[in-house]
Amino acid sequence: MALKLLEVVDEIAHQPAAAYEPDESAGGSAVPAASLRYLAVVAADVRDLVRRGRVLPQLVPEAGSHAARWRPVLTGADAARFRDLAQAMPPVCRAVTAAHTAAHTAAHTAAHTAAHTAARTAARTSDGTTTAHTGRAGERRSVDVLTDAMASLADAVVREALPERLLGGHRPGTRSPLADRWMVALTGEDAVIPGVTPSQAEELAAPLREWLDQAHRSEGPFRVSFRLTEPEPEEPEDFEDLEETAPQAPPSHADAPEPVRDDSWRVEFAVQSTDDPSLYLPASLVWAGDTVPGLDGRPEETLLAGLGRAARLYGKVDEALREARPAGVDLDTTGAFHFLRHAAPLLQAAGFGVQLPAWAGRTRLGLKLTTRSRKAGPGAASDQGFGLQQLVDFRVDLAVGGEAVSEEELAELARLKLPLVRVRGRWVELDERQLKAALRAVEGRRSGQMTAAEALREVVQGGDEELPLVEVDADGALGDLLSGEADRRLAPVRTPDGFHGVLRPYQERGLSWLAFLSRIGLGGILADDMGLGKTAQTLSLLLDERADGARPAPTLLVCPMSLVSNWQKEAARFAPTLEVYVHHGASRLRGDELAGRVRECDLVLTTYGTALRDREALAGLGWERVVCDEAQAIKNSAARQAQAVRSLPARTRLALTGTPVENHLAELWSIMEFCNPGLLGPARAFRDRYQEPIERHGDETATAALKRATGPFVLRRLKTDKTIISDLPDKLEMKVWCTLTPEQASLYQAVVEDMLGRIAASEGIERRGNVLATMTKLKQVCNHPAHLLKDGSRLAGRSGKLARLEELAEEIVAEGDKALVFTQYAELGAMLQPYLAAHLDRPVLWLHGGLPKKRRDALVERFQNESEPMLFLLSLKAAGTGLNLTAASHVVHLDRWWNPAVEDQATDRAFRIGQTKNVQVRKFICAGTLEERIDEMIERKKALAQRVVGAGEDWIADLSTAELRELFRLSPEAVR
Description:
Layout: H1 2-13, H2 34-51, E1 55-62, E2 65-72, H3 76-87, H4 98-107, H5 113-123, H6 142-161, H7 178-185, E3 192-193, H8 198-216, E4 222-229, E5 265-273, E6 280-282, H9 283-287, H10 299-310, H11 315-320, E7 328-331, H12 333-349, E8 353-355, E9 365-373, E10 391-400, E11 403-405, H13 407-416, E12 420-423, E13 426-429, H14 432-443, E14 447-451, H15 452-461, E15 469-474, H16 476-482, H17 486-489, H18 505-519, E16 524-526, H19 534-544, E17 555-559, H20 561-574, E18 580-582, H21 591-600, E19 603-607, H22 608-613, H23 615-619, E20 625-629, H24 640-646, E21 652-656, H25 665-675, H26 683-697, H27 700-710, E22 714-715, H28 722-725, E23 731-738, H29 742-760, H30 764-783, H31 785-789, H32 800-814, E24 819-823, H33 826-840, E25 844-847, H34 853-865, E26 871-875, H35 876-879, E27 890-893, H36 900-907, E28 919-926, H37 930-940, H38 942-947, H39 961-968
Parallel strand pairs: 4-8, 9-15, 16-21, 16-22, 17-19, 17-20, 18-19, 20-21, 23-28, 24-26, 24-27, 25-26, 27-28
Antiparallel strand pairs: 1-2, 2-3, 4-5, 5-6, 5-7, 9-10, 10-11, 10-14, 12-13
Helix pairs in contact: 1-2, 2-6, 3-5, 3-6, 5-6, 5-8, 13-14, 18-19, 19-20, 25-26, 26-27, 29-30, 29-39
């Protein structure tokens, strides 16, 4: 069963990240749920544990007898990963029936004792607390579920990897020693060993449990650490710096590599604090009786016990233990290389401390590409004539740590045949494949001319596995692009004349970057933090390219339905001269009418769903660019809507997203594939080269290569950047325009028709009551149909406001931030709290007037002090004043209380003395409804608002029936 499951989850794991999220048009097609995708991640981690040998054999009670099973060993980074997985477990994975709970309890009285003990250790943080979900009625603890899943999967993976019987052709019978039968059962098809008496089982199982327990005992306040120290060169030599004015051959250093003693490496033993690694006591000082504050207890016992466990992983430790006071081991260069490549990863995975020289895993032999513009000079970056077909002079050299290596040095490296050599003061790890690749490289074309496009392709492709590109030195516009800092090095493009507003300096730099990429026909990802003005920068780009009467082809902007109104409003506000057309809805134009309308436009707005349905029609039109807003919508390259958007031809493309990578690097590949098709190569090659080395092993070389490959095309500025913060106000207020779903629109219209008749037929207090009741009902409809109907029906997919809140909340928690979400309706908050908590798999707190003070204080304390990103839902009346919630950097007013003073008081829960972050305030408004019209009235009549609107909503009751009809009217743009 486990092997069958592995086949399924392996297929899921090899799809692009989040590859099964349904798009708008997916209809009823079946897709794997979050729980199955979660299991695929767990299975991939288990395979990695087995590959690294992080499993041990056990004898466990099972099926009324005993069975030979493999169990994972979780220490160090693996234990931290276990905690993360347990915390991220979808709630459905913990759900069980009462019958299953009873059966599970009975079956696990002894079967998984060692495994669960290990899991509890792995789930425990350094302060002794457990981070994973605890079980409630009807569900199991996530730690227990994950322990069982990893145990079963680990056993299946080992059996899959070891099909041969451990004892060859030996077939032990029922009278054979239990140890023989156990060893065969570890790899055989049947893990169960019949006929085992309790005493026999305990005799074998006890030392096996102790073995597993010992493997986990390194998790404590102290651990043994291993530090590799390198030898010093006997005769250090100076070397010249490379000239940087033009591509030149590297200087010759015939006497490099530097001579060193071959036996002067050493691995030093020490005791180290697990909480504060700076508390470090070498073994030599332990034996001398020295102490370090914070390293209390008996460090010599910790040292010997840890070395005993480490000896099973690294044989040199066993040799050192033959001494009375082991302090370390001396190594030659080959031994040091073995420690780096083999022993250190094993020790680190087992939870031991490992300290390596700074160059380890980073400094390697590679290629250095140097390019020089044929007409280089100051300000080249802003040269309007720069293009991808421009010729540049280039030179390719072998390099170590960014410095070129001469052919004489390469020949000397080949002659030495050492796995570790010192070149120019840097130790370099070499292997035979690298040297052969380097020798081939020096025989190939080393210098000449290439186009800027070819140079760009060389940088993105990054050499090959044996000889990667490790350094790029380019000047001029190409250098600005490749640096990944083009926005700071390009000449700023000033705020366009037609822009109604003033771009901040960082936004002008963003406009410069966008204009530069567009000019040379490249796509990019504008990935600024939420609230830094991606919309304003995009609109200013469209205005800038229309300066002096130019008429480029229109831009097609694809976005979620919930953002269409927002783009309309922002375009009208910042760029009113742009001709905007919304292509969406049943009445949208088609055929020649569509083509004619598009030719008249500067900006065409559509949704991802419409882009999929109208793919052929949109593909037949001429676009200057295609823009994807909330581009995480195309993070799944296999989704139909992502494929549809990628198929739309355009001269250039732009992706807007605050979270270019939400879960996995494959999402970055998918968005880059939209922006610059084919630039990062096929998805499988990207996964092998970048995704797996970075996500599984933290490969710094692969990380640097990916940053170098994508840096030219990604611009990301953070609110935490001081150069950005200085340009931002302390409080940034914005309106978020939402649309109604068809269901909401139908309910809205029904309420209006019903209540207007009642209002017209009533007078005095009764009329005022009917008006206020209508207001309440319409605001409930704008929030969610279930809010009006109060029928306990599902929440997902029925409200434009909720859809926008989900998108916003996902981005907020992805950035590690906290948010306050205010509503004036306690019943809405009670509905949203469990829904959002399950949707985000993050804490969503809920404070309302029905809570006692002690409970309120506890919620505030948790929100203020816990570091985990979360949402705090608050009743406007219960929490609008008196609370200090400065941990929040976002405030959302979900439904409007049309008294600005009340809203400002609520906002001031976060924006007050003690706040160290900028606060973004968003006010949700349903376009085309009474919410928009009241907002307009307040904007038009500020003085009146201060005088009468400040009294709440009673003033609306005094409007005439005709005025109320206009106020309540549902506009066509309200419906998505």
